[in-house]
């Protein structure tokens, strides 16, 4: 968000955000943080959305920047943008994509239920792999679900801080 408190048709209001009033921007950035393409959100569009607002934003930014397909470009985004149809489509275009995904967007992927995960030990995980998309859910501080169309799907353990034990521990990946 770019803060703005005046009157303008493109000004947005988002309750609960640190900057509640202003212009909402979509940005395509390099890994060091340089912005290479951006778009200002101006409200609802009458165009048909194949992948929803978030998915179409990703495709428009890639098209705007004219990123070459089949060149090994990796795109990362958060759960607002991620959907399984978008992952498949980007894979068909030969863009590598990874993003956190909301629980209601995993379609019929038979992962363990989020409420069941919350009762399990921290570090537990479940994953499913198809021909074109890998989806993984694990229990960290909260339940996290990630989808990718290219990443290596070998699960590893990580060293984490336990508030209860007041020490570091090595999380175990159980299925």
From TrEMBL:
Residues 1-166 form the PiggyBac transposable element-derived protein domain. Pfam families: DDE_Tnp_1_7 (PF13843). It comes from the Eukaryota. InterPro entries: PGBD, PiggyBac_TE-derived. GO terms for molecular function: sequence-specific DNA binding. This is PiggyBac transposable element-derived protein domain-containing protein.
């Amino acid at each position: 968000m770019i803060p703005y408190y005046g009157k303008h048709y493109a000004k947005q209001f988002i309750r609960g955000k640190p900057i509640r009033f202003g212009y909402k921007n979509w940005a395509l950035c390099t890994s060091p943080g340089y912005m290479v393409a951006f778009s200002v959100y101006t409200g609802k569009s009458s165009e048909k959305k194949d992948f929803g607002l978030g998915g179409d934003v990703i495709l428009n930014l890639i098209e705007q920047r004219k990123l070459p397909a089949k060149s090994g470009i990796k795109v990362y985004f958060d759960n607002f943008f991620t959907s399984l149809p978008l992952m498949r489509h980007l894979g068909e275009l030969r863009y590598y994509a990874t993003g956190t995904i909301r629980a209601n967007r995993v379609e019929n992927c038979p992962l363990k239920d989020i409420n069941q995960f919350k009762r399990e030990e921290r570090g537990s995980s479940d994953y499913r792999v198809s021909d074109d998309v890998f989806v993984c859910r694990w229990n960290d501080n909260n339940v996290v679900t990630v989808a990718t169309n290219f990443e290596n799907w070998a699960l590893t353990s990580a060293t984490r801080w336990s508030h209860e034990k007041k020490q570091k521990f090595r999380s175990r990946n159980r299925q």
